[in-house]
From TrEMBL:
The lineage of its organism: Bacteria, Bacillati, Bacillota, Bacilli, Lactobacillales. It is an enzyme of class 3 (hydrolase). Gene3D superfamilies: acylaminoacyl peptidase, alpha/beta hydrolase. This is Alpha/beta hydrolase family protein. InterPro entries: AB_hydrolase_1, AB_hydrolase_fold, FrsA_esterase. Belongs to the AB hydrolase superfamily. FUS2 hydrolase family. It comes from Lactococcus nasutitermitis.
Amino acid sequence: MKLIFNDSTFSFELLRTLSYAPYGGADIGEVLTTGYAIKEGDFESWYNEWLKTAERTLKQAKSFENSGQLLSAGEIYLKASNYYRSAEFFLHGNPDGSRILSTWRKSRESFRKGLSLSQQDVEILEIPYKNTALPAYFYRVDNKPRPTLIIHGGFDSTGEELYFQVVVEALKQGYNCLTFEGPGQGAMIREQHLPFCFEWEKVVEKVVDYLETRSEVIQEKIVLMGISFGGLLAARAASFEHRLAACITDDGLFSFQFSKAFEAHSKGDFDAHFAEQILEELMKKNTNIRWVIENGKFTFGAHSITELFQKTEIYTLKNISEKIQCPTLVCEAEGDMFFKGQPQLLFDSLTSPKTILKFGKQDNAEEHCHMGALTYYNQKIFAWLADTLKP
């Protein structure tokens, strides 16, 4: 699927921003107009044009707020949050740059302002974790005990983005939601500089502990959902955290080892020094490789490509995923440009009750994490959950 750009990375990220339109995260015209103004393959142009759109949208929100149109203002603040997120997306090649923090904070501030004005029943949380806290949001349908989704992202998503991707639909379907950011994500990497940790079960454990204190949560119906790279992290957590009623991986991921990905691409023996030389050259020509490496170094706290290879070597579910006990849903996108073949590897490794949902071109949902078809994707997910959680 190509949207405005021939460059697959720019096309996908534009589609990603646009995909949140049905859930209040974008307007079609704003996204397309911004896309046409961006110079293809140019990270600076991407930042500048999205920043202009975000700032213009923020002014609109403030104007509505000042005139007393608070509900409309809240909706526009939420859109601005998504546009600021998009603006910040390609900045991670300079992890010390001030624009990362300032732009991301504007995204978070706009989101929280939007929530407050939209009268959403939500609490902003800090869940104790080691010597710090996990930033989180707890969304309620009402005061009644209900099934509850724990949702986290992956390699690059933020806690605020998850609202558009899953939460809005989940609330309509009758589920409470707790979204959080762990090490390597959102505030934890940008403000606290805490990189990804493989023992994700220790993160999820604290979230489940917290939910056990909430009267609005049916304790036997807590579900974990991990998105993108979060599919591997969620499966890892479910392998050890057995209080979960179900686990959803969107999409399924068995391995996130950069060295193995390079071996498969080069079809030769792996040599870290040689790989670094090749990738440095490819980064000058290929936006996807450049972004993956730059964001990988940023989120894993690696100072070189070789160190990134080393830090990701442990990220495999071999001899781990078979420990999952709860029903597990593995999702697969036919046209996934990141994790092709990985969902089947995860599905085959599972010994618990398992389902694989394959989304293809016939569904218009073949892109990574089913961007462009989120309404249909969510409907399929909640149909599976309704069947899985029934008495």
